[in-house]
Amino acid sequence: MLKLFTETGWRFLWLSVLVLVADQYTKALVLDNIELYQAIQILPFFNFTHVYNYGAAFSFLHDAGGWQRWFFTIIAFAVSALVLWWSKQTTKQQIMLPIAFSLIIGGAIGNAYDRLVHGYVIDFLVLYYQDWYWPAFNVADSAICIGAVLLIIDMFKNKEEKND
């Protein structure tokens, strides 16, 4: 059993827990300290703005009537289970891939927890330039995006190594 957590990608699952804790902690701070729709300017291009996302990325299906809450929750747990299984398949020599998997798992579970408990995802990080605003996001979304970028980098890195 110890080998499972020392010689596979599961050795990075602490990162999933760290993402989950950081995500839920920051969301609790937002709930306790920022009114809904209140924006607090941090930098000339960055606000903390308390909003709810009833859909998926970029509020996709936010007005679908409620079924999307359960649909996205099921998808998050199914993807997390699949990624957890993939992570177990990685070797001790692989580092970037299991780190990417762990970031994705932590982020997916963080947002799924919000959907289960609140019925929506709490978002609060907003980037903008003049009148152009990037959709609000959170720590979990950031972890998922970083994990996805690392997956892409790993894919190209491994392709180059196989061609050598």
TrEMBL record:
Keyword DNA damage: no
Reported function: This protein specifically catalyzes the removal of signal peptides from prolipoproteins.
GO cellular component: plasma membrane
HAMAP family on file: LspA (MF_00161)
Topological category with respect to the lipid bilayer: Multi-pass membrane protein
Active site feature: 123, 141
Transmembrane segments: 67-86, 95-113, 133-153
GN (gene name): lspA
Keyword RNA-binding among record annotations: no
Catalytic activity line of the entry: Release of signal peptides from bacterial membrane prolipoproteins. Hydrolyzes -Xaa-Yaa-Zaa-|-(S,diacylglyceryl)Cys-, in which Xaa is hydrophobic (preferably Leu), and Yaa (Ala or Ser) and Zaa (Gly or Ala) have small, neutral side chains
The protein's name: Lipoprotein signal peptidase
Primary location recorded for the protein, binned into one broad class: membrane
GO biological process entries: proteolysis
GO terms, molecular function: aspartic-type endopeptidase activity
Key words of the record: Aspartyl protease, Cell membrane, Hydrolase, Lipoprotein, Membrane, Protease, Transmembrane, Transmembrane helix
NCBIfam families in UniProt: lspA (TIGR00077)
Pfam families linked: Peptidase_A8
Similarity remark: Belongs to the peptidase A8 family.
Pathway participation: Protein modification; lipoprotein biosynthesis (signal peptide cleavage)
EC number, as in UniProt: 3.4.23.36
Locations listed in the record: Cell membrane
Matches recorded under InterPro entries: Peptidase_A8 (IPR001872)
